[in-house]
Amino acid sequence: MRAGAGSDTIIATFYKTTPAMVVVERANRTRPAFQVRAASGARYEGQDIMFWDARGEALATWSAVELKCKRR
Fold it and tell me: How much is the pLDDT for 51?
């Protein structure tokens, strides 16, 4: 999954681990996040990152910056 342009571009790589994990990349930085319970979709949380994926759209909060994206 990718979103934005320039420094607001994010790349999310999902891993089938227990619990499930996503590694989110932005501006040459990476943050791992692990799946937590969510009412819908898949929600991942880590240090200074929250990533929520539902119905082909995602919302990421990275250092208090909110980024929205769609699958490519």
Answer: 92
Give the pLDDT confidence score for residue 56 in this predicted structure.
77
Cβ(59)–Cβ(47) under 8 Å? no
Q: List the domain boundaries for the chain.
A: 2-67
Cα(70)–Cα(14) distance, rounded to whole angstroms? 15
Question: Are 3 and 68 within 8 A, CB to CB?
Answer: yes
Beta bridge pairs of residue 32: 23
Find, among 32, 40, 45, the residue nearest to 56 by Cα: 40
Provide the whole-model pTM.
Answer: 0.78
